[in-house]
Design brief:
single chain, about 230 residues, alpha+beta, Arc Repressor Mutant, subunit A, 7-stranded mixed beta sheet, two-stranded antiparallel ribbon, 6 helices, elongated
């Protein structure tokens, strides 16, 4: 078989970069680390890596997430391929961005510390290398679309939460205030939350009821218009 057609074309590196979203202190956050090699040594970067010869893109993204946070079976979604020539000064690198949703409390704190990684609020990010800010921007838009079509929260909040907790998460995702009455009415009308009968009394004497997601094995993902950003 004549393989000359492969030899005459340029070779490229394929990488993945992971926009890892978490939620803490009423803020949507992104996990960043100081880059450990040149170019841009020590500057803030998304966590990522090159795709090995035996990996798919998805497997590479899951590997990066696991070796960074210690978490598996986490929601990840491919966002976009970034291929502008010269985006990486060291070589011709095409990087595919993924976003992930994790509960910060479940991360392996030792792993995160060993990477020198830090959670940064989406509203106050440092200067990033290359086109990593663009990757975050694209990922946030994708997350907003997801949150607008299906109820998100369990990946970021935990199993039990109040309606106020959920509203604050949505405000963090969409980066603006939301009317509490309209939000509560809309969310409860979807029929995807179960009122547990347990109250969270950490914020008031009266307390607020905790809710959890209704698990429907026959239709595990219910796509419904939830919120318009």
């Amino acid at each position: 078989m004549d393989n000359d057609i492969y030899r005459i074309h340029d070779r490229h590196y394929i990488a993945v970069d992971c926009v890892i979203f978490g939620y803490e202190d009423h803020e949507l956050k992104v996990l960043l680390y100081p880059r450990g090699f040149e170019p841009s040594l020590g500057k803030w970067s998304l966590l990522g890596g090159f795709v090995t010869k035996n990996e798919t893109l998805g497997n590479a993204a899951r590997r990066v997430l696991y070796t960074t946070t210690g978490l598996q079976n986490i929601y990840q979604e491919q966002v976009h391929a970034f291929s502008k020539p010269g985006r990486d000064p060291a070589g011709r690198v095409v990087s595919v961005a993924y976003f992930a949703l994790i509960r910060i409390s479940l991360q392996d704190f030792d792993l995160v510390r060993d990477h020198g990684a830090k959670w940064w609020p989406i509203s106050n990010l440092p200067e990033l290398i290359f086109d990593h800010q663009e990757m975050i921007n694209e990922s946030l838009i994708r997350l907003q679309k997801k949150a607008g079509m299906e109820l998100v929260g369990s990946d970021l909040l935990g199993d039990l939460f109040t309606i106020t907790n959920l509203k604050k998460l949505y405000e963090a995702i969409f980066q603006r205030d939301i009317d509490p009455g309209n939000f509560r009415k809309k969310i409860l009308s979807l029929g995807v939350l179960h009122k547990t009968g347990i109250k969270d009394k950490s914020v008031s004497k009266k307390g607020a009821y905790l809710y959890q997601y209704v698990k429907n094995e026959e239709d595990p993902v219910k796509l419904v218009p939830v919120f318009k950003g």
